[in-house]
């Protein structure tokens, strides 16, 4: 698979001050726009992110929806946990960790973001 050609290579948005929900058990076909449509009825969304494998570009099966208002995020969590989307029952929780500053790696730093991602993936493995 070609690594060139643009795609989704923009910098991560500033998510400081937003309340993040972690959405587990996503179908590999679920897109950020699909998640936005499910969650936008509960309040103003600042960011939607579905991590992808850096080589295959396939979804990792979880994502994040970030709200400007914590109450909106909590309401969305209460209303969408267990909801069926694309044939999968969503598991929605308040996120424990923020998105790493450079998820793609290769631009300095000490790799702390990758360690947090590994911890989060280990938590997912425990649940499945």
UniProtKB/TrEMBL annotation:
Matching entries from SMART domains are given as:
RRM
Pfam families per UniProt: RRM_1 (PF00076)
Gene3D superfamilies assigned? 3.30.70.330
Compositionally biased residues, Basic and acidic residues? 94-106
Record PROSITE patterns = RRM
In alphabetical order, the GO MF annotations are: RNA binding
**Where do the TM regions start and end?**
none
Region of interest: Disordered: 94-128
Sorted UniProt keywords: RNA-binding
Please list the residue ranges annotated as the RRM domain.
19-97
What is the name attached to this protein's record?
Answer: RRM domain-containing protein
Q: Lineage in the entry?
A: Eukaryota, Metazoa, Ecdysozoa, Nematoda, Chromadorea
């Amino acid at each position: 698979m070609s690594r060139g050609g643009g795609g989704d290579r923009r910098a991560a948005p500033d998510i400081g001050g937003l309340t993040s929900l972690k959405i587990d058990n996503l179908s590999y076909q679920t897109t950020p726009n699909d998640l936005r449509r499910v969650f936008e009825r509960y309040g103003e969304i600042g960011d939607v992110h579905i991590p992808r494998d850096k080589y295959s570009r396939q979804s990792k099966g979880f994502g994040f929806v970030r709200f400007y208002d914590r109450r909106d995020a909590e309401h969305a969590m209460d209303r969408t946990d267990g909801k069926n989307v694309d044939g999968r029952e969503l598991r929605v929780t308040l996120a424990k960790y923020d998105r790493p500053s450079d998820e793609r790696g290769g631009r300095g730093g000490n790799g702390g973001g990758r360690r947090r991602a590994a911890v989060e993936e280990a938590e997912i493995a425990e649940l499945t």
